[in-house]
Amino acid sequence: MELLQDAEFWVAIAFVVFVVAVFRPARRVMIGGLDARSQRIRADLEEARRLREEAETLLSEYQRKQREAEREVAGIVARAREEAQRGAKEAASAIDAAFTRREKAAMEKIAQAEVEALTELRQRATDIATAAARHLLTEGLDPARARALISGAISEFEQRAH
Questions:
Q1: What is the Cα–Cα distance from 41 to 156, expressed in whole angstroms?
Q2: CB contact at 8 A, 125 and 161
Q3: How far apart, in whole angstroms, are the C-alpha atoms of residue 155 and residue 24?
Q4: How confident is the model at residue 49 (pLDDT cuts 50, 70, 90)?
Q5: In angstroms, rounded to a whole number, what is the distance separating the alpha carbons of residues 24 and 30?
Q6: Is 132 within 8 Å of 149 (Cβ atoms)?
Q7: How many angstroms separate the CA atoms of 69 and 8, rounded?
Q8: CA angle 6-9-10, nearest 5°?
Q9: Residue 141: exposure state from Cβ atoms within 10 A (0-12, 13-18, ≥19)
Q10: The domain containing residue 131 runs over which residues?
Q11: CA–CA gap between residue 51 and residue 59 (Å, rounded)
Q12: SS3 letters across the chain
């Protein structure tokens, strides 16, 4: 029974009682804190999962939009190429038409120049024939000589005409 009178024994018992008395409420506080922390972690995990699902949804939507945009760009490029080819064909046909018009105009100018040359040649022949007739009339040639001069003028005209 000496143990009951020993101060260290009572200090040890008081310490055990104190630890047991403090441990229960402290345990509840610690467990409550850990439970609250695990609840926060679960909520954070759930929020992260929800955000991940949202991000995946947005990613798939943006990928779909990107594919649509790529298809649209491909269509625009194809239409631009078609328009460029059509424009090139139209430009080529316009150039051909302009060339044809210029060629026709040149042919018309050549034909007109030929007509003017023939007209000038006829005018000269007429002038020569008139001069020859005047010469014959003024000199009073005999008929044989007049016929020879006229025949010479006609043959000269034919040579110059061709």
A1: 124
A2: yes
A3: 151
A4: very high
A5: 10
A6: yes
A7: 85
A8: 95
A9: middle
A10: 2-161
A11: 12
A12: CHHHHCHHHHHHHHHHHHHHHHHHHHHHHHHHHHHHHHHHHHHHHHHHHHHHHHHHHHHHHHHHHHHHHHHHHHHHHHHHHHHHHHHHHHHHHHHHHHHHHHHHHHHHHHHHHHHHHHHHHHHHHHHHHHHHHHHHHHHCCCHHHHHHHHHHHHHHHHHHHC
What's the length of the chain? 162
Bigger pLDDT: 15 or 154?
A: 15
**The two structure tokens encoding residue 125:** 């022949």
| pLDDT digit string, tens, across residues 88-115 | 999 999 999 999 999 999 999 999 999 9
CA distance 26 to 20: 10
- Please classify residue 126 by burial: count the beta carbons closer than 10 Å to its beta carbon, then call 0-12 exposed, 13-18 middle and 19+ buried: exposed
Find where tokens 């991940």 sit: 52
Per the structure block, which two tokens stand in for 128? Answer: 């020569």
Q: Please state the domain count of the chain.
A: 1
Query: Cβ(151)–Cβ(129) under 8 Å?
Result: no
- 113-132: pLDDT as tens digits: 999 988 888 888 888 888 87
